[in-house]
């Protein structure tokens, strides 16, 4: 992706203008958080690159920007969760005022093509909405990534993959003229899903991505994700977490294992992550479950 100058990033921001610059990159999609260092106006400019689009969501309340189209400038005021979209096929010039704090996602155009045979492979000419609008679905999906960007939660590759896939699918269905017909729901798992479940079972104690599973199953990531949800009624990440919690519950019957050891064996990032997941599933902490149903525990 082309940048305006060596001192600016690919979105046109200078490092000296930013108090926060965080990034989580997938194979072709990148999530970012950028926060300005002050309320002083700054100018950003990027030439057309044809690389896709960037979708941004404001986390602050007092940001404004004058976006230039030709010789005219249009001012937009951003509240919390306000959205904007930049098409990298179009030159972008803007003056930004008030302190900004944005969650952003960069998406290449080819991700908006159906990656299977369920629909026409037609590239949308535009995915657009009015600058400053809000969309609860986009807010929910982008907010799920925020703790990992800031380091508050460990990076979970499969979870990030699924958020990215859900976001692209939603944007394609909501804001582009592409519709993908639903596939027939099968009564029993198809060979594809049976193979995927074996891969997931082998990954209970580690990390696995949608790309890894789709590649080993010899299908596209988009096709795999859609078929998995249609057949099993949950996402791969939800299924994996459910199995990890079930395995952990079985290990809680072994009093020689500490909660931290069980968390590690079952693929949880730490004991706190294990406790939260277990509590959501069974309505009590692992320690309490072990006391009531699994026998005496070690510390």
TrEMBL record:
Transcription regulation: present as a keyword of the record? yes
Give every HTH araC/xylS-type domain span: 194-292
Cited SMART domains? HTH_ARAC
Q: Name one GO molecular function term.
A: DNA-binding transcription factor activity
Query: Which Pfam families does the entry link to?
Result: HTH_18 (PF12833)
| SUPFAM superfamilies per UniProt | Homeodomain-like
Query: Which keywords label this protein?
Result: DNA-binding, Transcription, Transcription regulation
Read off the PROSITE patterns from this record. HTH_ARAC_FAMILY_1, HTH_ARAC_FAMILY_2
Asked if the keyword Transcription regulation belongs to this entry, the reply reads yes
**Protein known as:** Helix-turn-helix domain-containing protein
